[in-house]
Amino acid sequence: MEVSVIAIGDELLIGQVVDTNSGVISREITPDGWTVRSTRAVGDNAEDIKRAITQAFEQTDVVLTTGGIGPTKDDITKQTLCDYFGGELVYDTAVEKNVLEVVAKRGLKINPLTAAQAYVPSSCSVIQNRVGTAPIMWFEKEGKVLVSMPGVPFEMKEMFTTEVFPRLKQRFQSDIAVEHRTFIVINYSESVLAGKLEKFENDLPGNIHLAYLPQPGIIRLRLTGTDTDKARLSDTLDSLSAQLDDIVGADIICKEDKTPAEILGDLLRKKALTLSTAESCTGGNIAHCITLVPGSSDYFKGSAVTYANEIKSAILNVSQADLEQHGAVSEEVVRQMAEGATATFHTDCAIATSGIAGPSGGTPDKPVGTVWMAATLGGKTVSECRRFAGNRERVINHATTIATLLLIKLLLN
Amino acid sequence: MEVSVIAIGDELLIGQVVDTNSGVISREITPDGWTVRSTRAVGDNAEDIKRAITQAFEQTDVVLTTGGIGPTKDDITKQTLCDYFGGELVYDTAVEKNVLEVVAKRGLKINPLTAAQAYVPSSCSVIQNRVGTAPIMWFEKEGKVLVSMPGVPFEMKEMFTTEVFPRLKQRFQSDIAVEHRTFIVINYSESVLAGKLEKFENDLPGNIHLAYLPQPGIIRLRLTGTDTDKARLSDTLDSLSAQLDDIVGADIICKEDKTPAEILGDLLRKKALTLSTAESCTGGNIAHCITLVPGSSDYFKGSAVTYANEIKSAILNVSQADLEQHGAVSEEVVRQMAEGATATFHTDCAIATSGIAGPSGGTPDKPVGTVWMAATLGGKTVSECRRFAGNRERVINHATTIATLLLIKLLLN
User: Fold this and answer.
1) Which CATH superfamily is domain A2-171 in?
2) In the Cβ-directed half-sphere of B365, how many Cα atoms lie within 13 Å?
3) Which A residues, 152 through 181, put their C-beta within 8 Å of a C-beta on chain B?
4) How close B49 gets to chain A, by Cα (Å)?
5) Which CATH architecture has domain B177-254?
6) What is the largest CA-CA distance in chain A?
7) Can you tell me the distance from the alpha carbon of B310 to that of B315, in angstroms, rounded to the nearest whole number?
8) Which CATH fold topology does A260-412 show?
9) What three-state secondary structure class fits B141?
10) Among A113, A206, B67, B102, who pairs with B191 as Cys (CB 3.0-4.6 Å)?
C-alpha cells in the first residue's frame, strides 16, 4: 500500500522548522510493507493545500497530512478540508470534552482559542487526540482516505502509531511483503564500495533493490525486497546477506539499522564494560549521542567536556608540559585525555577528542577541521588524526562518529 | 520570486534520512525576498521525478532539485533530466578535470564510478562542484529554470550559497521587498499567547502576516511583510514591533531568530562572564548546544556529565548524604551540582540538570519526565522542577531549553 504525506505550515517553507513527521511516518509503515510514495510541504495557503491533496490522490489512495490545525490564525487547514470534502464546521462536544481533559492534565485552563478546536468538518470522523488539543480528522471519498494529524512531532507520532496506522491497516489489506536488511559499513567511500559491489548489484534479482546511504564516517547499505511469499523473500535476503558478507564482511560492523552510539552500547552491555568520554572539540556531543540511547546509564558513567586547557589538567590529569609543548590538539594530549577519563570516572574504556571545529582557531599546521581522537580499553590506547571538511556542525558530527568507531573497532578486535 | 524544491532519493521516503537541504535553501533565499512555494520528496523513480518537475513548474518558474545524482546505481536523476529536457548524456572534459581535482584533494584515487560523473546532459550548462564530484546542472526551457544539485548537505549548501543562488538572482530580478522580524517569547502556551495578541493580529495591515512557531519551552513569533517600498515596510514593522513590546515585552527575551544557546552566549559575552554546566539527564546536550555556537570557547569552560552518583560527589562535590537522603533527582542535589560546577571549572555561572529521561527509571513520586534544573550566578542559585511529556529525546531537549532559560532569566534580571 502506498501513501502520500503532506506537511502543512509556512514555518516549513522558510526553513525555521524541519519536517521530521514524514520520516516518523515512513519508519512506522515500511516494516509492514507500506510505502511512502512522495512527501510534500506546503504553506498555510488554501489553494496550495487543495492542489497538493488533488495531486497526492492522483498517485495514492491514502493521503496523510500533518500540521496546520493549531488554534492560531495562521492555521487554515480545517476550513480548507471542509471545502474540499464538503459539509461545514460543526461544534463537536466529544472533542470539547477531550480538549478539556487534555488541558486539565497539563494544569492549564481552557481559553477561547483552545475551545475552538472543538469545531470540526461535518464530513469527517474524529479520532480523539489523547496527547494534545487538535483533533485527528479522518475523511473518506470515493474509496480514498485522507487523515489530518497535528504537526507537533510528539503528538503526531503518538497518535499515528497507536490509532491512525492500525486503523489504516484494517481499512486497506495488503498481500505483498516488504523486507529491508541494513548493513553498517566502515572504511569505504561510496564510489569505492559501489565499485566493489558492482557484480553483486548487477546480479540482483528484479525484486531486490540495493541502496547506499552515506553519512560522515559510515555507509548504510540497504537491501529492499518485495514478494508475495514472505518466507521466500526472507530466504533470498539471507542468501544475499551471506554474499555481502563474503565481499565486505570485515568492514560491516552491524547488520541492523543502528547508530554508532547504539552499536557501541550493545557491545559494552554484552561485555559488561563501562564507558566515559573526554571531549574538547565535540563539546559533549559524544556523551549526548550515547545518552540518547535508552538504558545507557547501565554502561555510561559520565563525560568531562574540557574546553579550557586548565580543566584538561585539573579533571583529566593531562600533563601541563605536554599541553604547552604540543598544544591541546595533539596526539599526546588526546591520549592522556582518554586515559585520564578512565581514571577519573573509574571506567573500563573511554573516548577522547581534541580539535579545531572552526570557523576560527585554525593555523597553517593545524587548519580548521583538524581533530585528534583516541580510544582506550584495558590499557591499550589507539589514536588517529583526521582533517574533516565542512562547517562547525559537520566537523563536530564527523568527529563524533569517527571517535566512536575507534572504540567500536577496539571492542571488536 | 518563488521557487519549488524537489528532494530526490529513496532514503528520504523510508525515513532513514531527513531532508535538511530544503530548509537550507529557504533560509538562504528568504532574506532576499525569495520564497519557497512548496517542497517535495520523491524516490529514485523516473516517472515520479518527471511528474514532480511538471507539477512544480505549474507553480513556479524556478525548480531546485537536490540529490539523486551520486555515482551509484540507485541514482537515476541525470538520465531522467536528460529525457525531460532533451539531448543526450555527453562526456564533459571540464567536469572530468574538476572531479580529478576534488578526488586528489581528498587524497583518494579516481575509479570508474567517480569518473562517470563526467557524463552530463547535453541540454544543461554545468556549474563545477568545487567540494564534491557530482556536477551541478542548470537547465532552461521556455523561460523557466531547473537547477540540479547534489544531495550531500555540506556540498549542496556550499554550492547553492556561493554559485547557484547568486546566478538565480542575476537571472530573475525582483522588485518586491520581504522582511521578517522574529521575537523569542517565553512563559506562554501558544493558545494563551494567541488570545493575548488577538486584537493586535486582527488589526494587522493586509501585507503583514503573523506566525506562531512553538518549540518546547519557547514560542518564536514571526512578523512577515511584503511591500514594493522597502523603507515603508521597515517603518511598518518597527511600529508593529513597538506594539508587540507593549503587549508581551516582558516575556520577549530576544528580537532575533536565535537559539537559547545563542541568546545565552550573547549575554555572557556582553557581561564578560564564564560558564560551565553539570548535566545528568541531559547527558551533555546543554554543552553540545552551547558549543555548536561559533566562538563559544570565549565563555564556555566545560561540562561535567555526571551520570553516576559517585561522579557527582567526586567531580562536583555533591554531598553523599544528600544523594542518599533526597536522591539524585532532587532540589538539593541539582543546586549543589550547579554550585559545584562553578567551583570545579572556575566559572562565574553554571547550569545543572538531574532527572529521569525515561523510558524506564520512573517511580510514583518521580515519574518519567521529572527533571530538576538549577542555574547559579554570583552566589545566587535558582532551581525549578518540571515534569516534561514525551519520549526520551523530547525530555532531554525540553530540559535543555528550560535549564538554559533559567540562567538567561538570571542574567536579564
Assistant:
1) MoaB/Mog-like domain (3.40.980.10)
2) 4
3) 152-154, 157, 180
4) 10
5) 2-Layer Sandwich (3.30)
6) 78
7) 9
8) Maf protein (3.90.950)
9) strand
10) A113
